[in-house]
Amino acid sequence: MTDDTNRPGQIDELDRLAALPIDDADLQALDVLREIYEVGDPVPPSLLDRVKFAITLDDLEAEVARLQREAVPEFAAARSEDLLKAQTVTFTSETLTTMVTITPLPSGRVRLDGWASPGGGLDVELRVGETTHHTVADEDGRFVFEDVARGLAQFVLRPRGDGEPENRVITPAIEL
What we know:
- The chain is an alpha+beta fold.
- It is 24% helix and 35% strand.
- The protein has helices at residues 8-19, 24-40, 47-55, 76-79; strands spanning 63-64, 66-71, 87-92, 97-104, 110-117, 122-128, 131-136, 142-148, 152-159, 169-170, 174-175.
């Protein structure tokens, strides 16, 4: 093994080269490195949405629900082939439990059927990417989003007409 400290001329040359402006050869080398990383370790498709979610989380005072479980409902096989792909996700927090069934639609989008307990009259907000959908849970806590684009999604649930951040329940992001 050689020690570069014994070759001061080589170190001076490296410093000189490092101080030069970036040229076409440097740009070509950087392009090759970018291609290597794009093939060998690509950026996950949902990373940008997850970073935006983490940075723009304006509901820091909200209660954060935990993802309890994901499962394919047992009744799916009895209803239709499309329902075989349905998933049920349950979120729990100290004040609210929310179950959402995600059913794929032939269009490539999804239908979301949800139940919140206790949930009568909750405002339900669904955030998918840059789009926000709103609905109100009925007196039994049931809510529906009939035609939603796939993507990283998050629910914000709050008592109707209550804008107080500490009364909101926000779920972790899930992939639809």
